[in-house]
Amino acid sequence: MKKTLLTIITTCIFLSGMFNIAMAATQKIAVVDVSAVVEKSAQVQALKKEQTAKIQDLENWLKIAQADVEKQKTKEGKEKLLKKYNDDFAKRREAIVLNYQNKLKEIDKSISDTIASQAKLKGYDMVITKGIVLYGGDDITADIQKVVK
3-state SS of the chain: helix, strand, coil percent to 5? Predict the structure, then answer.
């Protein structure tokens, strides 16, 4: 009884493995180097440039604020102004970070949607990121880079 059960289980496992291999052989799989696509994206380059400018503006504002605090003659005046500027700095910094995160999410969605639509257009059943794949799949990175803005 145990030998028969063991034989049936082994046969089922073997057949399911063969079925999975057969299914994988019929699927058309694409590979994309997402980091290369992101690096070449004009949207990402523009966002980096915008973020650098905003940080530079914040640094310039901070220098002006520090100079303003130093101009105060009394300790109380300096502390009051310093607190005001610290609060303002935190709000400005938070706004910059939130704006950056929101725009980055939009770009990520745009790139993901572009990859998906291009893969469907070319008849691929699955797209895998290039860092995971050791062998196989059609590399469509260059095609995606041409389409991504």
Answer: 80, 5, 15
* pTM (predicted TM-score): 0.68
CA dihedral (70, 71, 72, 75) in degrees, to 10, reads 30
Whether pLDDT at 16 is above 70: no
Q: Mapping DSSP to helix (H, G, I), strand (E, B) and coil, where does residue 91 land?
A: helix
- Give the pLDDT band of residue 140 (cuts 50, 70, 90): confident
Cα torsion through 147, 35, 39, 144, rounded to 10:
-10
Quote the Cα angle for 19-21-24, to 5°: 110
- CA distances (Å), origin 29, targets 7, 76, 95, 119, 144: 34, 68, 41, 9, 15
How many secondary structure helices (H) and strands (E) does the chain include?
Answer: 5, 3
Q: In the 8-state DSSP scheme, what is residue 146?
A: H
Domain boundary assignment for the chain: 2-147
